[in-house]
Amino acid sequence: MGKKISILIVDDEESVRDSLYSWFIEDGYHVECAENAKKALTIFESGQFDIVLADIKMPGMDGLEMFRRIKALNQASIVIIMTAFATVDTAVKALKDGAFDYITKPFDPDDLTHLIRNATKQISLTDENEILKQKVVSLECVEDLIGNSEAMKNVLREVESVAQTNSSVIITGESGTGKELVARAIHANSPRKFFPFVSVHCGALTESLLESELFGHEKGAFTGAMYNRKGRFEMADSGSIFLDEIATISNKMQVELLRVLETKTFIRVGGNKEISSDFRVICATNKDLRNMVDKGTFREDLFYRLNVVNIHIPPLRERMADIPLLVNYFISKYCTSMNKQPIAIDPSAMKRLQDFNFPGNIRELENMIERAIVVGDGKKISLRDLPLEKNIVPNAAESLDDFERAFILQILTKYSWNISRTAKALKVDRVTLYNKIRKYDLKQAD
Amino acid sequence: MNLQNITLISFGYFEKDFLEKTAEAVRLEFVCSANIREGHIDLSDFYDPGRRQYNGDKLLRQIDAMAFPDSVKVIGLFNIDLFIPILTFIYGQAFLGGRSGIASHYRLSNEPYGMVMDKKILLDRFRKEVIHELGHAFGLIHCYQPTCVMRSSTYVEDIDQKEQHLCLTCRTQLGV
């Protein structure tokens, strides 16, 4: 048994109160008794009981009126009506008004035990449900969507407005920009948030596997189908389904997907029964679907069905202002998960990160910070903790001079400032390299 | 912990061997001495003609009022159909953490359920019921261990499922 259940017994007969008190106290419950409704309400208000066992017929306020007042005080409390045969009709009325159950005096010990067991089960399920709801909210909240840049603020605004609707959404953006996070944020802010969010990575599955994964299959539908299995569309009933890398699905699957999206019904592989499911579709791709439609590799009708709302997530290089915020967020996230004290980042390392173009986007930055925390000295993230030797390329928005400066510096660093080797790698002579070093004021300590 | 002496008072006819074996089980379980006495009360005072049963609450209070200065716990043993006002029947009851308890083998026998009398089963059930009620008198509440004698039983089949002994948790709580 988890928490100690508290029971309030309300009956004008002392022998009934005493008997029930003894019975429940032996079961380890916290029990209190009241001889009338007025006293019971006073006790209830001060103690908030989980279960109230109330007689219907009592002098003064009757059990039904007391039941209504208890429900007004605490909707979640469970009220069980005790009644004699003559008042069963009244008890049935109480049931219709929301009483948990009624029991006719005298009770069979087993009936009473089962009734209380069911009531305690209901209490623990309600508590558990509440805890899980809170966990779901905390798990799926949008805190991972970090960004103060105008580009990111636009994305968040779009997420907020589209979440409340039932429209299909296509999320576009380069790999590693956080498309699934945006999809989760849409789901977490939608009225479907307490129902499943089912994610399918279309690119990772062959056509037949994807078909079985999405629609489910019946036992014996194919070799290895030993059991009936629910498909992802079925699992996403009342929730959202996220189809990642939608551009990779075959023509046949495109046709099937279009039919499912239009009818919200499907048949399991090897089955003959039509199954309906109420789901919302959120897709993601890093390809240009419009271009694919023009080339004839993606069905136009499916494109229009999916592309009701399009949210484009900008690559990290287009929102470099968010880098310090993201870096600090990842430092805090990984220090917490690795049980380490939060550490700072050296300004020169931060500057270098802001100069990096991140072809792998946020995923690359996140991995870089995680690695730096693992390999670093635990005090500060410095330049040497960051794997930035390769691919230092300034932002596209910056000048050719900036590009040249950063590139020469990268190669110089790679060859430990060995001028001959660097010049050879850059395919220029040593004099030219010296001139460039002078021109850009490059220093070894930089 | 020395649980001292427990008195078992029989009311009505009981075979001597039946009582001895019950007392022996109590001795072993609570690591104490247990003596048997014969009691005499007018049961008609506790009879409810409307229910054709005997009021367990009143009987328990009667047992509790009896003076047994040499005993730390007292349990009345009966062969009558017991009830308490709110329940259709009980096998027995005790004051939780109190001094007294009662137990009846009326509904523990196979006969009321249309089966052949089995003395061994009856003795087995009765010993469990007596130990169970004494456990309450020693302050133990119902236990969730399936085989512990302190598990709540509302059917004789439930009693058959459990053992005659306290589980480790209950024994630890009792200090035996």
Would you write up a description of this structure?
The complex is a heterodimer of chains A (446) and B (176). Chain A is an alpha/beta fold. Chain A is built from 18 helices and 16 strands. Chain A has a five-stranded parallel β-sheet, with helices on both faces. Chain A has a five-stranded parallel β-sheet with strand order 7-10-13-6-14. In chain A, helix 13 packs across helix 15 and helix 17 (419-426) packs across helix 18 (430-439). Chain A is elongated. The model of chain A has no long low-confidence stretch (mean pLDDT 85). Chain B has 176 residues and is an alpha/beta fold. Chain B has a single domain (5-141), classed as Collagenase (Catalytic Domain). Chain B has helices at residues 16-30, 56-65, 119-137, 156-161, 168-174, and strands at 5-11, 33-39, 47-48, 53-55, 73-78, 82-84, 87-90, 92-94, 100-104. In chain B, the strands form two sheets. Chain B has a five-stranded mixed β-sheet with strand order 2-1-5-9-8, with helices on both faces. The chains are: A alpha/beta (446), B alpha/beta (176). Chains A and B meet through helix 1 and helix 5 of A and strand 7 of B.
How many structural units, i.e. domains of chain A?
4
Percent range of helical residues of chain A: 40-55%
| Basic shape of chain B | globular
Shape of chain A: elongated
Query: Based on helices, strands and strand pairing, what is the structural class of chain A?
Result: alpha/beta
Report the uncertain regions of chain B: none
- CATH-defined topology of chain B: Collagenase (Catalytic Domain)
**Strand order, sheet with most strands of chain A:** 2-1-3-4-5
What oligomeric state best describes the polypeptide chains here? heterodimer
Short description:
Chain A is of the alpha/beta class. Chain A has 18 helices and 16 strands.
Give descriptors for this structure.
heterodimer; A: 446 residues; alpha/beta; Rossmann fold; Helicase, Ruva Protein, domain 3; 4 domains; five-stranded parallel β-sheet; 16 strands; 14% strand; elongated; B: 176 residues; Collagenase (Catalytic Domain); five-stranded mixed β-sheet; four-stranded mixed β-sheet; 5 helices; 23% strand; globular
